[in-house]
Amino acid sequence: MSDSILVVNAGSSSIKFKLFRIVDRDLTPALSGGMSGIGSTPALKVRDGRGSVLADRRFEAGEVPDASAAQHHLADWLLHHLGDAAIVAVGHRVVHGGPTFTEPVRVDDAVLRTLETFIPLAPLHQLGNLDPIRVLRERRPDLPQVACFDTAFHRGHPELSDRFALPRFLYDEGVRRYGFHGLSYEYVAGRLREIDPEVASGRVVIAHLGSGASLCALADGRSQDTTMSFTALDGLPMGTRSGALDPGAVLHLIEHKGMSPAEVGHMLYFESGLLGLSGISNDVRTLLASDRPEAAMAIDFFCRRVAQATAALAVTLGGLDAFVFTAGIGENAPEIRRRVIAALGLTGLILSNDANGSAVAPLDGPVRIDAPESRAPIWVVPTDEELMIARHTMRLLGRSASGTE
Ligand code: ADP
User: Fold this and answer.
1) Of the residues 48, 59, 175, 217, which has the maximum number of CB atoms within 10 A of its CB?
2) pTM of this prediction?
3) Among 132, 149, 166, where does a domain finish?
4) Cβ(212) to ligand 1 under 6 A?
5) Is 328 annotated as a binding residue?
6) Is 200 helix (H, G, I), strand (E, B) or coil?
7) Residue 404 within any structural domain of the chain
8) Active site residue 364
9) Is 328 a pocket residue for ligand 1 (Cβ < 6 Å)?
10) Same domain, 236 and 325
11) Parallel, antiparallel, or unpaired for β 43-48 and 85-94?
């Protein structure tokens, strides 16, 4: 029997999982997949550790109407196909650890109750994240479950990075700059320590550029500041999210255009960002391939904001010893990397055109893409949030995963 750790990343319209086998105290990916299009066009897809498709099944909308139906379909599939792999623990991605959780935690009833109090802080995600934990606790109360938070990595950042310029009582009530993408930053910071320990101990900006996008400023591997804050709307423009915005514009939409808070929320989360700017697509690939001026403008806007926010974080750090790209856009789009680094000319960062052009997924591991004359290294480091969750889960079980974190 080979022991396994199941990692679950559940949202409102999709639930993804990854199964790691524990082999010689190491974690090997064995299965990955999930259910997408819950309630609309449900589809179950599962691949093995080498990427071969094991399941590719479509459902009628009524067969998988909600997240809980999706969990049951997935659980059934896993039970039938796991073979000799015994799941010894489940690690969950939970978006919000509030002001309380500074690291992953094993879930019991008290923890679950505390996590439920953070639902208002991330209404879109937190509920969906907690649902499978609750269901599993009912079906398998003996199975250890660990919650790993997107916010935890930033909890140690300085007070200056944690506050808004709002009345003090709001901070005490939890209106804080929490920051997100922490599992990705933690993983990438750990990889950087393996491949370039000297740089990793310095002042680094990591750009997590995916459909959600943020930057993190790190000193000696620890978060000092980040562009997302109270919610995952702040900071950079994203696929469909606005990023930072004049709060007066939000008041205008409500007071003068008569939009409800829910309508404004929908616009800011799902109709803005690259999609809103271009009117064409939220996908960088489509925009780069388009010859329409709106597409070019959206890309220019995105790259300039990434560069501007990097400069601001370099001020927080008092300098910049390395810049790192990661996630879907960061790992796959040389043209975006080229434009971001070009816009950061004042930092003295210079790309190697050849190294940048050939660094596209699937990457085996980190790739250095700066030119010899660059003032500091530029890396592309593929992220792996699921592996980070599996490692945390294993550590909390009292079994150390070999690896450097
Ligand atoms: P998430 O995990 O937040 O859904 P990802 O990190 O997978 O997002 O990033 C998804 C985004 O990455 C896509 O929306 C797309 O814009 C971008 N992307 C993926 N592949 C490429 C590519 N080859 N070229 C440019 N952009 C890409």
Assistant:
1) 217
2) 0.94
3) 149
4) yes
5) yes
6) helix
7) no
8) no
9) yes
10) yes
11) unpaired
The reply to whether 73 falls in a domain is yes
User: How far apart, in whole angstroms, are the C-alpha atoms of residue 118 and residue 131?
Assistant: 14
3-state secondary structure of 5: strand
Where helices occur in 201-260 by DSSP H, the ranges are 247-255
Q: How many other C-beta atoms are found inside a 10 Å radius of the C-beta of residue 43?
A: 16
* Same domain? 227 vs 102: no
Q: Are 103 and 251 in a shared domain?
A: no
Same domain, 237 and 375: yes
Ligand-binding annotation for 108, yes or no, is: no
Q: Is the dihedral angle over the CA atoms 173, 175, 179, 180 positive or is it negative?
A: positive
Tens-digit pLDDT string for the chain (405 aa) = 589 999 999 876 789 999 999 988 889 999 999 998 888 899 999 999 888 999 999 999 888 988 888 888 888 888 788 766 689 999 999 999 999 899 999 999 999 999 999 998 887 789 889 989 998 898 889 999 999 999 999 999 999 999 999 999 999 999 999 999 999 999 999 999 999 999 999 999 999 999 999 999 999 999 999 999 999 999 999 999 999 999 999 999 999 999 999 999 999 999 999 999 999 999 999 999 999 999 999 999 999 999 999 999 999 999 999 999 999 999 999 999 999 999 999 999 999 999 999 998 888 899 999 999 999 999 999 999 999 999 999 999 886 554 433
State the distance from the centre of ligand 1 to the C-alpha of 4, rounded, in angstroms: 29
Distance in angstroms (rounded) separating the CA atoms of residues 76 and 244: 42
**Alpha-carbon distance 323 to 336, whole Å?**
14
